[in-house]
Structures are given as C-alpha cells and as structure tokens.
Amino acid sequence: MFESVKSLDHKHLVTVGLEGFYGVEKTGSVGLNPGKWAASLGVDFIANSAIDNIDFTSVHAYPTVDQRYKSKILKKPVLFTEVGFPSSVQKNNGLYDRNIFLKILYDKI
User: Which of 24, 44, 50, 84 is the most buried (most CB within 10 A)?
Assistant: First the structure.
C-alpha cells in the first residue's frame, strides 16, 4: 500500500501515524507502553514503522516512557506529536513537577 502512495507522490514524507505502542508479541517492550491496555489495541509500532516506504515515525511522549528505544531500532526520524505529563503523577507530586518537565522540554525545543 505505501509503495503505491510513494509511486504517486515521491516528494512527500509518509508515516503510519501510530502513537508508539508496542504489540503483545514484543514481550520485552510491552512494559514501555503507558498501560496494559495499549498492547491490546492490535498495533505493533516497530513492525508497522519498519516498512521501507515509511519515512518517519510519530509518537506521543510522556516522561514515564523512553522513546529513544524506538528511534534506535528503526533508524528513522521520530516526530513527537503529543507530549504531556501523566495525570496520576500530577496528583502525587503536584503541578510543580509537571511544570519543571514542560519547561525542560520546551527549552530543548
């Protein structure tokens, strides 16, 4: 399918638009998902993003998940399409930790 998209328009980048969840068959990586529910969605970020005609990946990033792992395996650029701070962490540590995280993130950008 992606090969036909690229044959029609080879000037634009193509991605699958997944959030970055690991499938259940990636047993060593499932723990990197934001919760057990993520593996049950039927997606496998690595397998889908590794397709040759996929130019880059996109993920949702939260401080409890290490996104560097995905970039190293795929050797493709990663676009962070959503960043945030889990509400469960906000409740335990207050908004101060969230604000520090977001300041560091925005300063890096």
Answer: 44
86 and 64 Cβ atoms separated by less than 8 Å: yes
Closest by CA to 85, choosing from 67, 70, 68, 105, is 105
Number of domains in the chain: 1
Residue 90 clears pLDDT 60, i.e. is over it: no
Indicate the residue type of 43. V
Q: Which domain holds residue 26?
A: 2-108
Decide: pTM greater than 0.85. Answer: no
Question: DSSP letter at 17?
Answer: -
What is the pairing mode between strands 78-83 and 57-61?
A: parallel
Contacts of 3 (CB under 8 A, 6+ apart): 52, 53
